[in-house]
Amino acid sequence: MALDPNEFSAVIKVRKGKTYPDLINSLALRNLPKETAEAEGWPTFYMPEPCANGHTAARFVKNSLCVDCWRVRQGRETIYPTAKNRTYYKQRDATPTLAANGAPVVIAPPAPVEPKPVEQRFFAELATLRDIDKAASAVPGWTRGTVESRCSSNPIFKAALQDLTDRLGIATRAPDAETFKWSPELEKNFAMRLVDCGLLEQTRTELGVSASSYHTHLERSPAFAALVAAAEPLARLTLRDRATKEAAAGNDRLLKILEVDAPEAISTWSVERCNAEITKLLQRFDAQGLFVEQSNADLVS
Ligand SMILES: [Zn+2]
Q1: How far apart are the CA of 24 and the centre of ligand 1, in A?
Q2: What is the DSSP letter of 29?
Q3: 60: helix, coil or strand?
Q4: In angstroms, what is the span from residue 33 Cα to ligand 1's centroid?
């Protein structure tokens, strides 16, 4: 019984006359058990079981090797979600819960938590094209407006989009080269957000700042460079806080990264104190007139 490979991936390949879903270079759109893939003569299968490295990725039928592990060996980036943030598929607990008297407790099946096929198609396009506008255009009937409105109405979609854009460093705001300008306000927001979320990449993505604009501005504005330098140790502390929470939830990857780069004395500060310190710094920079005025800023987008 021949299955339609289009149902399993947005990218289809043909090899030796056989058409199959390309789960190595594009995300699986739905589960594909190993037996099914084998019966179809397809090279890969996909069940959302994380590998030893946490990739919730497709695997090769012949040896069950995770395709993201394989991609890493090839020096390429991973494309599937990692186990720390399994937003595409959530597995149900297979162990039945037992009541105090030993009788199994019947729980109503949870509502489906995975994005709809059309949304998964969008995510597959986004993983390949790395641009929200382009990915939306690649899905029939979709525009950026579709993406924005789904974000507002659908928390599962929003979380999956956030996860993918975070991991791949895709800007979530439309880059507007015409009107984008660094302003004292943006610089302050940037520093505050960096302290609050702990991650430079995430801060840039959320504020719609491209990597090139960030680095150029860092070079051109000593005040902004000083601000980021001051925010970084505080950001590291926030990150440690996040890492500790994630470690408590069973994922110590962030914590391990941070242990290598141990923070100094301020590690004992509270997040409130960090925010108070950054506010003081901002006021000092402001008082010294270190912030460039928007009017005379000859800054690139
Ligand atoms: Zn893997």
Answers
A1: 12
A2: S
A3: strand
A4: 17
Q: Could you report the per-residue pLDDT of 291-300, keeping only the tens digit for each?
A: 544 333 343 3
How remote is the CA of residue 227 from the centroid of ligand 1, in Å? 38
Helices 200-207 and 184-197 cross at an angle (nearest 10°) of 140
Instruction: Enter the DSSP assignment of 265.
Output: G
Give 214 Cα–ligand 1 centroid separation in angstroms.
32
Which tokens sit at 134?
């382009």
With beta carbons less than 8 A apart as the criterion, state whether 56 and 80 touch: yes
Cβ contacts of 68 within 8 Å, gap of 6 or more: 51, 53, 55, 57, 78, 79, 80
Measured in Å, residue 50 CA sits from the centre of ligand 1 at 7
Span from the CA of 76 to the centroid of ligand 1 (angstroms): 12
Q: Are 59 and 65 in contact (CB under 8 A)?
A: yes
Q: What is the pLDDT of residues 82-128, one digit of tens each?
A: 875 444 444 444 444 555 555 555 555 445 567 788 898 999 998 88
Q: Where are the extended beta strands (E) located within the chain?
A: 12-15, 18-21, 44-45, 59-60
**Contact criterion met (CB below 8 Å) for 45 and 62:** no
| All structural domains of the chain with their residue ranges | 5-81, 117-168, 184-287
- In the reported structure, the alpha carbon of residue 276 is separated from the centroid of ligand 1 by a whole-number distance in angstroms of 41
What letter represents residue 136's amino acid?
A: A
How far does the centroid of ligand 1 lie from the alpha carbon of residue 51, in Å? Answer: 5
pLDDT beneath 50, residues of the chain? 85-96, 109-110, 262-266, 292-301
CB atoms within 10 A of CB 267: 12
Task: Please give the angle made by the CA atoms of 67, 71 and 77, to the nearest 5 degrees.
Answer: 120
Residues 75, 70: Cα–Cα separation, whole Å:
9
Q: Residue 251 C-alpha to ligand 1 middle, in angstroms?
A: 15
CA of 74 to the centre of ligand 1 (A): 13
